[in-house]
Amino acid sequence: MSKPSKPAPDFALEAALHFRGIRKVAGIDEVGRGPLAGPVCAAAVILDPANIPQGLNDSKAMSAKAREDAFIRIVASAQAVAFSFVTAEEIDATDIRKAALRAMAQAASGLSLAPSYALVDGRDLPALARPPLQAIPA
User: Fold this and answer.
1) What's residue 106's pLDDT?
2) What does pLDDT average to over the chain?
């Protein structure tokens, strides 16, 4: 039996927040939890609701070329983008979960535009005093 496919990402959560008057919504995610060596990276992005790049999807469902193209379009059109890396040594000193959450918190704090709300991919939330956070489990 085949596994049901996940629905493509949409802007429904952000649209609901915009309806409530919350405009600067950040999305936060990490990459690099799977490998046995190397850093973990996180990104925080505030997309421009009037200029959302077409073809965004779960990065694991995209080809390398599609991911690179999406990255270029996101960086070019977003209201704010920030990245953070936590080294393998820092991961080894704690654990991958804590390191990923630290990278997420650092990325969110590095945004040039302060978000009003943040949607975090996964079940765990990074330690941030602001903005309000919402976990989006897979």
Assistant:
1) 95
2) 88
